[in-house]
Amino acid sequence: MDNVLDLFEERGFVEQVTDKDALRNQLGRPTTCYIGFDPTAKSLHVGSLVPIMSLAHMQRAGHRPIAVVGGGTTLVGDPSGKTEMRRLMSREEIDANAEGIKQQLSRFIDFGPGKALMVNNADWLVDLNYIEFLRDIGRHFSVNRMLSAESYRIRLETGLSFIEFNYMLLQAYDYWHLFKHHDCRLQMGGNDQWGNILAGADLIRRLEGEVVHALTFPLITASSGVKMGKTHQGAIWLDPELTSPYDYYQYWINQDDRDVERFLALFTFLPMEEVRKQGSAQGEAIREAKEVLAFEATALCHGRIEAEKARAAARQLFGAQGSGPEGSVPTFALDAREVEQGIPAFILFEKCALSKTRAEARRLIAQGGAYVNGERIENFDRVISAKDVKEGSLLLRAGKKRYLRVTVEG
Known about the structure:
Elements: H1 4-11, E1 16-17, H2 20-26, E2 32-37, H3 49-60, E3 64-69, H4 91-105, E4 117-120, H5 122-125, H6 130-136, H7 143-148, H8 150-155, H9 162-165, H10 167-182, E5 184-190, H11 194-208, E6 213-217, E7 230-231, E8 234-235, H12 245-253, H13 260-267, H14 272-279, H15 285-302, H16 304-318, E9 331-335, H17 336-341, E10 343-344, H18 345-351, H19 358-366, E11 370-372, E12 375-376, E13 383-384, E14 393-398, E15 402-409
Parallel strand pairs: 2-3, 2-5, 3-4, 5-6, 9-15
Antiparallel strand pairs: 1-6, 7-8, 10-13, 11-12, 11-14, 14-15
């Protein structure tokens, strides 16, 4: 497939585009594109994978991606998709977060000499003269048109601050800056960014008389209706210190059967022939398809060695063959004195965060969903003691899929 726009459409990346034929013509030759990532946390999460994968596909197709770390725009805060104003962050906090995001993006995109670029918009936004900015840039924006953008219209109901109102102008300025300095002719982003991206394209048309392009991605949700990257335990982060490779692997293998083909297309580089083959799996074979999804997604984010460790651990755990490879399964350290004294099972499960409360732990045990070393716990007050420790640890399980190795130390 020669044109990356056709690949995007086949794999499910396209929600809106300014002019499909014109963009296809543009992408018939090497093109510079960009996506912005606001460093509001020290790590990106799974919800950022669609834009990350799109940049990786662009690079593989011979185009030049630019990843813009929004060190400047984060000082203002993007109102898109939010019902209330974001917490204002310090420059130091933003810069520290930006450094972590750079490392994560480097796993997916080659930033070597002559390859992709990574820039921080603080470099050109922070020192702008406000009066000059209003005269040179602000005069091209219609307040009525800005208020018609979905991101602003929704916020008007709950309150939109003046500082947030400036966000569209700053993002449009980013596009113009990248056009001027890097000949960037395509901005991509989530569909909630459509109004902001169009504002940038319009600014370039007004200032430079040039036509540039916009493409947005669908906002991905699982078939269950849950937003991508969210679980009952919180966000699934790309940073291995926040979400272990094992937990990351488990997130993917636990996806709904209905999502396997769609997620293989979006979140792996497998050829579409293989994607369709795996997506058509039925019965027991769907478990193998999910394993392919989990392995490929984990290998992209954390490397093949960590993916292989996570897969081996999952196979052993689900096969009830004992604990997985050291370091692959989440662990919790317990003082040896507590184990020697004995600890009731419901207290242990609450202490290790396999249950949020002791009452929840009691219910889990009563329903037959709690295990120690593969054996079901029959009574909530069963005492777990040193005799249950195998090779210095306990293997706890809550429900069908949540495992935890408790190491006994001291």
